[in-house]
């Protein structure tokens, strides 16, 4: 009887990352913001579940685990930094074009994560800014270009790099690397938003609601979008379909952009520039219902394509 091939040992950089880099990063977070560090395990729960499921796969079906880990970490470290720089540049350009001398006021308000402590006059000014018709155009640009196209594009390039490094032998490996990219981006984004909310003094009840939403919907949403990209990449790379980069990204950009536009619109309806979590029950229910509906539709789209491709998750 032939014994199974041994699992390859991790490289030295990967072992150093596990034993030194990650503990040091968590210690740094704990030093800067103990509450955020205490909440981080909850935000990491989707990653922990995904890693557990990956480890349960037979070695020959789990792809290159080192490439998977680097894809996750690379997307989590570089993704939000690159996306943030591009998004900030786009905001400067479009706010300047549409609002001229008032653009700096919009940029300042856009960066708020809470309205706690603002005077009634300041809140009234924000409401007037949010209800400006030109701001609706900004929401479309930010949702579909600044957020969706930029972030899905970064996850796409992370997948391309992973495929180049791993040289997949089986099609389902695309899904593994794409999920790693989506989870990496979504998880660090959740940690950064939590850190900002905690440090800005957001109410505990709102932080608890935000944690629930982000642990379940945000990381899941980023992952579903990346998985949709992976299926289109399989069609192009493995099945020989002539698909441009735009056609590969069209579905996730459409879902992600609509999801963002609805949430930004709810925030604007409540008189806020940028994203401020709603506090009234009606807005919260509408935002959550819309998110669940969109993500469910995207997940159904993924499942239908998976069956259409007759893709075996493990061979």
Briefly, what is this?
InterPro entries: PrsW (IPR026898). Keywords: Membrane, Transmembrane, Transmembrane helix. This protein has 315 residues and is mainly alpha-helical.
Description:
The protein has 315 residues and is mainly α. It has one domain (45-309). Helix content is 78%, strand content 0%. It has eleven helices and no strands. The protein has helices at 12-32, 34-43, 45-56, 65-99, 103-110, 120-130, 133-166, 173-199, 204-237, 245-269, 281-309. The chain is globular. It starts with 11 loop residues before the first helix and ends in a 6-residue tail after the last helix. Mean pLDDT is 87; it is low at 1-5.
Features:
mainly alpha; 315 residues; 11 helices; globular; disordered N terminus
Helix % is: over 70%
Which structural class best describes the helix and strand composition?
mainly alpha
Work out the count of structural domains: 1
Principal-axes geometry comes out as: globular
The portion of residues forming beta strands comes to under 5%
H/E topology pattern: HHHHHHHHHHH
* Estimated radius of gyration: 21 Å
End-to-end CA span: 21 Å
**Number of beta-strand segments:** 0
Would you tell me the overall average pLDDT? 87
* Unreliably modeled segments: 1-5
């Amino acid at each position: 009887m032939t014994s199974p091939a041994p699992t390859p040992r991790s490289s030295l950089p990967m072992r150093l990352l596990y034993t030194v880099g990650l503990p040091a990063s968590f210690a740094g977070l704990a030093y800067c913001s103990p509450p955020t560090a205490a909440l981080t395990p909850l935000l990491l729960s989707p990653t922990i579940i995904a890693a557990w499921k990956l480890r349960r796969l037979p070695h020959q079906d789990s792809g290159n685990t080192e490439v998977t880990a680097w894809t996750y970490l690379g997307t989590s470290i570089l993704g939000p930094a690159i996306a943030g720089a591009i998004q900030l540049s786009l905001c400067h350009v479009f706010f300047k074009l549409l609002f001229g001398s008032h653009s700096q006021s919009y940029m300042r308000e856009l960066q708020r994560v809470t309205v706690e402590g603002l005077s009634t006059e300041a809140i009234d000014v924000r409401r007037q800014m949010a209800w400006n018709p030109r701001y609706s155009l900004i929401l479309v640009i930010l949702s579909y270009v600044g957020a969706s196209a930029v972030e899905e594009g970064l996850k796409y390039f992370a997948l391309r790099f992973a495929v180049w490094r791993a040289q997949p032998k089986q099609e389902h490996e695309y899904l593994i690397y794409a999920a790693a990219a989506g989870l990496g981006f979504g998880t660090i984004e959740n940690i950064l938003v939590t850190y900002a909310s905690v440090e800005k003094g957001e109410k505990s009840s709102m932080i608890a609601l935000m944690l629930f939403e982000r642990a379940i919907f945000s990381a899941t949403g980023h992952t579903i979008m990346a998985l949709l990209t992976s299926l289109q990449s399989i069609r192009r790379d493995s099945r020989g379909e002539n698909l441009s980069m735009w056609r590969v990204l069209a579905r996730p950009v459409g879902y992600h952009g609509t999801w963002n536009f609805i949430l930004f619109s709810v925030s604007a309806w409540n008189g806020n520039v940028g994203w401020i979590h709603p506090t009234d029950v009606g807005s919260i229910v509408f935002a959550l219902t819309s998110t669940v509906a969109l993500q469910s539709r995207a997940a159904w789209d993924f499942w239908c394509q998976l069956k259409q491709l007759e893709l075996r998750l493990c061979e």
